[in-house]
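Figure S4 source data
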Amino acid sequence: MDIIVAENLKRLREKHSLTQEALAEAWGVPELAIYKWEAGRLPVEYKMLVRIADFYDVTVDSLFIDESGENRKPSKSDKVSFTCKVCGGDLVYDYVAATCKCANCGNKWSIAELYPKYARVIATINKASRILNSNSVLASADEAKLLFKQAMNECSKIEDVISSEIIKICNDGMAEAEKLETYCRGKYFFDNRSYKSALKELEKVSGYRDADEMIRRCKRQP
């Protein structure tokens, strides 16, 4: 869990002269959970962060800002993994699916849920991926590339282990978008019976979608 969030939870509670017991009763959660949240030993789910922010009349984003008002910029060596909040087992991250799963009990959470600061980035990546998977036009490839660049720019402001992995996913997405661009050019030439030009483009993306079938048909043309 982000240590700044943990520190802010404790600071806000003390600022309002509240005990962990009082908060547990007000929020309907175990007192032990609040203790672990403030100790940075247990992640706070996004829905709970929203409730906490509303309770203290602050924004969710402010929970990720230190007392000096500066956004925390952790080093790349910061530990971002933690144990399962159900059984204490190790969590295994699937950055492509944007989830993490307990290796022991199998419970699964979205990275955006455990790390709300990544929610917008992951939503952007998911949108770009949907565009690539559902459309086969140049405009879609361009739009997806812009979205991946946007996500990369957001991650570059955070600079931790998770952001590094997400940037790798964005780079893979950019490569996929460029492959789609090449495929679309080849298909355009193919549909207009410019078979030599089509073959030149499609051979660059052999194995992609139905490129191989078009390549075979191009080679059969006189």
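Figure S5 source data
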Amino acid sequence: MSGYAKGPFAVDWEDRYDMAALRSGRVAAAQRALEQSETDFLLVWKDENVRYLTGLRAQLIAGKTTSLNGALLVPGADPVLLSSGGEIDKARLGMSWIGEAHAIPIMEQAELVDGFVANILVPLLAERGLTQGRIGVDQANISFVTAMRRHLPDLEMEDGDVVMQKARLVKSAVEVEIIHEACAIGDSVTQRALDETKAGRRELEVAGDAMQTLFYLGGEMAHVITPFVASGEHMSPPHRLATDKIMRNQDLCFIDIGAMWNGYFADIGRTTIIGKPSKEQQKIYTAVYEGLHAGFEKMRPGFTNQDAADAIIEKIGDHGLADRLFSLFIGHGIGMGANEPPYIGETLPGATVYPFEPNMIFAVEPLVWVPDVRGGGGVRIEDMVRITDGPAEILSRVEYEETLLV
């Protein structure tokens, strides 16, 4: 299966994106994952899980994620939306697929959280015969945990996010189509930033230009909430945000902003050069480029995330730079979660080996930085990749920087 971005508008002359099938397919996937788990039902609060189950596109308030909206999923039934009072009327009037919705407070003040559990959640669960058993919760604050123990002592709380991660792991055909569209917007955002990267401009100016393109094209938000535009020595080590630094001749500049469209993320990054690169900058860029493509070769069924990581590290090592890889994973799953399992190249305790399956989607992003290089010695290149039955499909299409390749 291969696709392309057909356009974000609804039209009468071409089949585009079946949003009803998208929503029903996601609920079915979550129900299957729930059935295969030892959890009886789910109560989710993470933005991506609420969107996945209900389709709610909510106002997001800084620092309040997981505190504004929730969803209850019971086997064999449609999700119940638990929505901030600011969203409830929109949900009731404009989301016909939501059969039941309840207004809830912001889930942080202990008294309000207790009131929600006692007066809204307990009756909801009681009428469904669910005041005993195992409830899967993806994230919660201590006030919620305390209130649950007080008012629902016979419920055992378990990790519900692992259920949702399983549901979201392999994308459906329509999800892949939506991600193609997100990549088209993400490519455009990245290209605008590259076009605006010039000596005498500030990192923040370039970020602003790119964000203008994001919203012009119907994107919902950037993949990186703090747009990542880092130039020159700000890439060695990486400053993962945009600042008032003035870009100068001989600066490398990295762009990582991406896009979300209809709830799905595209994470795309490119490094460019202002003026002519030095031989050291070319060496670093070439190592990252070749490492990235070595990883692509292993991203197919029959191999694992560890195989891809090993290939990337080995190829970068051929250039003598393996010990200069950024101390972060090399790639990550992506979809409704901006970063989601599986990870490629995670080295911290608990890192897990996953076999590649068709329609897993990853953002692969090796980063190498070398100190004390004039104009900066840090390079990252990032592409969106879909696992197929054969060779990996590269979903992002922004050109690489040929002047930086040896």
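The longest strand covers residues 80-84. The two ends are 34 Å apart (CA to CA).
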